[in-house]
Amino acid sequence: MKILVPVKRAIDYSVKIRVKADGTGVDLNNVKMSMNPFDEIAVEEAVRLKEKGKATEIVVVSIGPAKAQDIIRTAMAVGADRGILVQTDVPTDIGGVEPLAVAKILKAIVEAEKPDLIIMGKQSIDDDSNQTGQMLAALLGWAQGTFASKVELDGGHVKVTREVDGGLETVSLKTPAIVTTDLRLNEPRYAALPNIMKAKSKPLETKTPEDYGVSIAPRLTVVKVAEPPKRKGGGKVASVDELIDKLKNEAKVL
Amino acid sequence: MAILVLAEHDNKDLKPATLNAVGAAMKIGGDVHVMVIGANCSGVAAAAAKIAGVSKVLKADDASLAHGLAENAAPVIMGVAAHYSHIIGPATTTWKNILPRVAALLDVQQISDIIGVQDADTFDRPVYAGNAIATVKSSDKIKIITARGTAFDAVAAEGGSAAVEEASVKGDSGLSSFVSAEVSKSDRPELTAAKIVVSGGRALGSAEGFKIIEALADKLGAAIGASRAAVDAGYVPNDYQVGQTGKNVAPQLYIAIGISGAIQHLAGMKDSKVIVAINKDAEAPIFGIADYGLVGDLFQIVPELTSKL
């Protein structure tokens, strides 16, 4: 079984973001960038399936700048076999390459690579759209198991336990299928140094969106990007009695 | 052209999130229709017909639609999409799952999680865990949108008298099937609709430790939430999680107990009207956004608070 794992280079989750003063976006200059956390979980899940002998090959794809090679190498260092970088200098956070365009490029790659399973993050922590997996499933006419907290392969099907608003739901999908990962699917490992060295010699192909005949022109124009209204916090009370008094008589919420 | 709002329901009851999504549609303006997709969902359709301001209800009722499988539901929406300028779903896991599928089939770039309407084409949406708000203008012919419930006032559940029409169903895609569900049962109010939310974090230490949260919540008639850390540690189920990747809440009163206030958690609750933080670490970021902070041992403070209320 061949697994395709799309990964995205995004702002590191620990970075405090700065909105650009001119309101055109978020300042990504000299900011730590990493693999989107949900995609790390996707890579880990694919690697575990390979370690269990269920998968034979893991192909990682990223769409982004030349630097996105780094996260492809990271995925290789934990066990991916091969990488494809679809290189573009158009921003991939907001106002640039959108989920629909990403899904179209991935569709073309899927048609060439013919994976049996696609595992990808449910959303990226920059634009927070939570769309690409579902869109790719639609374009391919495949089943989708979104927000997965458990994935079990079962013959021609994959059983996915999903984190939904009411609790958990399990669905069975006919393969080939798409799974999008939620936080509790697994805990991704760190790459060991010798594997980081070995990853450097694994094959990485570079392409462009044009190679796949996909237009990445955005459908959404970013009119402006602003900071959210600031909350005035920092008030303190000294005791439970004072807290109850304030909630009753000042805030009037009790 | 009219606006189609997709109903959130469990085939028995219409969920309040639907009323917020209708509220978002009203902000855009125009004729608002509601679509109920389910199985044996006539009661839900009847409830939807009573929503104030709704002029038509479309009901797609088929066994294949019982569990909200995206592969079966998307074609049903495709069947009516051409009649609408906007298709809006509540930003629940149901519609986060289904709507991008519809958008891709229509060759539309969906606008997720809107929190504001500037005009019929232009919407505000949070990005970067709510640390920035992007205003985006869509050039697509049909706008596919999910609307965040906390950002739009619910319309009245009563007062309308819309006609219910049957929408055509497409049957089972054969791609996916429902296996089982583990639904958390609770007599407490729903997290996203509660007036008061009591949330616990990792400092509770165990599922046992969370009992003091439950006691306080029951005293206040509140819903219970949790930080990601508490969910990851297994103290409470996943559906309690408040934050960037969990639920967004904006109650009248949010009480954060033993929660340090990671960006990802703040993203899900900072629009609450009044925020109370109880934490032993006076430097915890949660105090930076709390209206009333109380520094101390939560295992003393919380039971005292519960007994004095």
Q: Can you characterise this structure?
A:
- The complex is a heterodimer of chains A (254) and B (309).
- Chain A has one domain (2-249): Rossmann fold (3-Layer(aba) Sandwich).
- In chain A, 26% of the residues lie in helices and 30% in strands.
- Chain A has six helices and twelve strands.
- Chain A has a nine-stranded mixed sheet, with helices on both faces. In chain A, strands 2-3 form a two-stranded antiparallel ribbon.
- In chain A, β7 (143-154) and β8 form a beta hairpin.
- In chain A, α2 (69-77) packs across α5 (193-199) and α3 packs across α4 (132-140).
- The relative contact order of chain A is 0.18.
- Chain B has nine helices and 16 strands.
- Chain B has a seven-stranded parallel sheet with strand order 5-9-4-1-2-3-10, with helices on both faces. A five-stranded parallel sheet of chain B has the order 13-12-14-15-16. Chain B has a three-stranded antiparallel sheet with strand order 6-7-8.
- In chain B, β1 (2-6), α1 and β2 form a beta-alpha-beta unit.
- Chain B is globular.
- In chain B, 60% of the residues are buried.
- Chains A and B meet through α3, α4, β7, β8 and β9 of A and α3, α4, β5, β7 and β8 of B.
- β12 (220-226) of chain A pairs antiparallel with β8 of chain B, so a sheet runs across the interface.
Largest interface, with counts of residues having CB < 8 Å to the other chain, equals: A-B, 84 and 90 residues
CATH architectural category of chain A:
3-Layer(aba) Sandwich
Shape of chain A: globular
Q: Please, what is the average pLDDT of chain B?
A: 97
Count up the helices of chain B: 9
Strand percentage of chain B, roughly?
25-35%
CATH superfamily name of chain A? HUPs
Element string of chain B (H = helix, E = strand): EHEHEHEHEEEEEEEEHEHEHEHEH
Low-confidence stretches of chain A: none
Number of domains of chain A: 1
Strand order of the largest sheet of chain B: 5-9-4-1-2-3-10
Radius of gyration of chain A: 21 Å
The biggest sheet of chain B, with number of strands, parallel, antiparallel or mixed sense and barrel status, is: 7 strands, parallel
Q: Structural class from helices and strands of chain A?
A: alpha/beta
Helix content of chain A: 25-40%
Mean pLDDT of chain A: 97
